[in-house]
Structure formats: C-alpha cells, structure tokens
Amino acid sequence: MDVPQYADVPHLGQVVPSLLAMLGVPGESGTLAVPEARSACVLLIDGLGWQLLSEHAADAPVLTELAKSPLRVGFPSTTAAGVAAIGTGLASGEHGMVGYTFEVPGVGVLNALRWRSHDDGSDLRGALPPREVQPLPTTFERAAAAGVDAAVVSSAQFSDTALTRATQSGARYEGVHALGDLAARTLEVLAGRSFCYAYHSELDLVGHLYGPGSTAWRMQLRQVDRLVESLVDGLPAGALLAVVADHGMVRIGEKLDLESTPELLEGVRAFGGEVRARHAYTEPGAEADVLAAWQSVLGERAWVRSRDEAIEQGWFGTSVSDRVRPRIGNVVAAARGTFGMVRELAEAAESSLLGQHGSLTEAEQLVPLVLAAG
C-alpha cells in the first residue's frame, strides 16, 4: 500500500521561518511567499482541517474567503508535533515530538501534552526537563535575539506547562481566558514590531467529543470564524495575520482493541502514539516478527512500517536526528480510512473519543493557510 505523498504542499514548519525572514531575522529561510509587514502573528486553530473547512464553508465564510492554499502538517498529525513545528520551524524528525505519547529511552513513555508517564501518570518534569527533550533554539528565541518582540497569546492554563517551555521558550506569555481577550491581546501585540503566536484549542476539543462535522463542532467553527473576522477587521496597518492548524480530524468507524488482539501483543514491550498513529516498541530481536504480525492483522486498514522504513520514506521529515530516532517505535502504524487502534483499558478516555487524528490521510494532513494584511 503506497503512503500518500504531499511533497508539493508546504510544511507547517515553513510558516514561522518565512515570517521571521520577512521581519528581517538573520538566518531564517523565507521559503513561503508572504506579504511585507512590520509585525506578524500566527493563529493556530487546533483541529481545523482543510477538508473540514471545505465541507463546512457555509459555517466559516471569512476563513473560506481567505483560505487560498493548504499546508501539510507531517507525521504524526497531532498537537504536540504541530506546536513544536511552530516553535522550531522543523518537522518531527528534528524537533523530536514524534507522538502524543512516545518512549524516551531510559525513562519510559511520555505523554507530551501532560508531561507525565503514560503508564502510571507520574510527573516527568524532573526526569525529563523540557529543554533537554527539545533542546533546539525556538523560533521565539531567534526572533527575540534579533530585537523582535516575541509573544505567545494563549490560554492562561498553558502558561507554564512543560510543552510550553519546550516549544515556546523565549516568548513573553500573555495568558488569556476566552475568545474576546485572545483577540484583544493579539491585536495589542501586533501594534509594535513583533512576532506573535496565538492558539485556540476548543474546536479540537469539540471535535474529539462530538465528532468533526457534528452540530456542536459546526457551532464552534462559527465562533472561530468570528474570531478570525475580529482579528482581520482590527489588524493594525503593517500587521500580517497567518491562520493555520496543527491537524485535521476524522470520525472513527471501525475500532480494533490492541489489548484484546494477542497477535499484536506478542513481542511488544510498550506502546506509544494514539488511536490513529501507533508506535510499537519491541523486545530485543522481535522487530521482524512484530512487523510481520502487524502487517498481517491490520492489512489494508493501516500503513505499517518498520522504524527504518518509515524514516526512509520521509514520515518524520527529510531528516531524523540521532537524538530523535530511538523515540520512534520499532514498528509504526498509521491508520487508513476511519480505522482506529484503541487500548480500551490502558487508554479508556482516549479510546472513547469520536473524533481522532494522527495519521497520514489527507483529512488529517492538510490544513488551511490563511493570510490577511492590515
């Protein structure tokens, strides 16, 4: 089964370096054509897929009018990887956030959003300092070093999380509480020579709970469109707004419980990833047998590759650093269609969600790139 290719579609990680290059930050690569401006903001709408926006254009007339082209988010199509792509300008093979959960050698499986052990829930901030897990200079540090005011406008609850430290160090954090102050603070930051990253999470949350395209999801999309309209209408002269997303989403159909499938457990010592994108970490010497078993059992329902094959095929970007390679499963599976690989006992909450993402399908990979200038 051939893996979908998106080589002609720009990567999410190219957006911020292109904006920083436009702002005159030395060493940044302006691979995307963006209008000249003296300040710029990336607004990330969690879970807004290109296909979903196209299917529900009537609920988002402003976004639909402005959205001219898609981006690809890379593998895995999940929030930790997308936020890190914004925060580093790189794909997951370099920044290292290779899953919602992934194994860090010598420590265990990390939940990258909560920075806790995925096995027992223990806090891993001491064992895994955020800037050791992601040690590369952030886009915010690079902007600030060039004299550009770097700010993050996002929920106050995320102000001091480990993921924020790993991916947004160097920025002034402006904690907000609702759509109103998210819009207001973003516009205030854009009044000066600045680079701003703003984040809205609730569309993704509603999609997980009720399914993408549900009535609740469409109502939330309307609120997102109003947010974008407010920002576009209020943009100061010389300010640029880029609206992007970290992934799309699919409604899960068929599920397979990994823990109830003995053939998929044999030789596997740990699991990472999520319902649509799985890492299987194998016992020594068991990789070939595990790969064969997963390919046989999952069949046409997933793309299944060894670690080396997935890297060679560019799943994690054009290069994978030696620091990151061990975090990738010995066997990696990416779901096709609406298939889900759940763990009903170990991941009860995640397994119950109607909307999921993480894989290589167009519905999950492609997101909008929206540009508006003041």
Automatic annotation (TrEMBL):
Alphabetically, the GO molecular function entries are: hydrolase activity
Database matches in InterPro entries: Alkaline_phosphatase_core_sf (IPR017850), Phosphodiest/P_Trfase (IPR002591)
Record PANTHER family? BIS(5'-ADENOSYL)-TRIPHOSPHATASE, ECTONUCLEOTIDE PYROPHOSPHATASE/PHOSPHODIESTERASE
Q: What is this protein called?
A: Type I phosphodiesterase/nucleotide pyrophosphatase
- Organism field: Amycolatopsis jiangsuensis
